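lol ok so funny story. i was supposed to be doing the assay writeup but got distracted and ended up predicting the structure for this chain instead. priorities right. anyway since i did it might as well share w the group, maybe its usefull for someone
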Amino acid sequence: MNTAMSGKNILLVEDNQAVRESIKMLLDIDQHAVTEAANGQEALQLFAGARYDLVITDYLMPEMLGDELAESLKKLAPAQPILMVTAYAERLTNRGKPADAVLLKPFTLIQLRQAMALPIQRTASPGVAETSVPVGFSRSALRQRAVARTGVLEEILRRKPTDGTSLYRRLND
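and the output, tada:
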């Protein structure tokens, strides 16, 4: 672990409590101070009263999507580093890019560390060119990954359970 990447003040926004607790546990390993918010409105209230080295937000949340939260935060603090975590990267391909980086769920501690480094380093090093591509993924790579996942899912659905019917057929009955 890079010591420059430890001990950061992080606002973590995730509506699913179990996922939020899991991410917090990963952040605790690197001695980050983590403030938790269960939704975008709560995050905006917390953000108004504190300074954060990084905001980590889920994308798909009720009431306010993660990109809407990111847009609101960038209006308040344009240089605020924001990392969006999502299992729905394909939904982000045609939207604006208010987050500085995107990390696909599920992820490991190493992937989280790598994804956190880019937005934090951008803020620490003004003049670094920003990209509109998620960390570690080009748009074409995201599309390929979505197509591959869909293909794998279709293959799983075609497999025959022990009773001889296809799972795909059973799900569509």
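The longest helix spans residues 139-158. The longest strand covers residues 9-13.
back to the writeup now i swear
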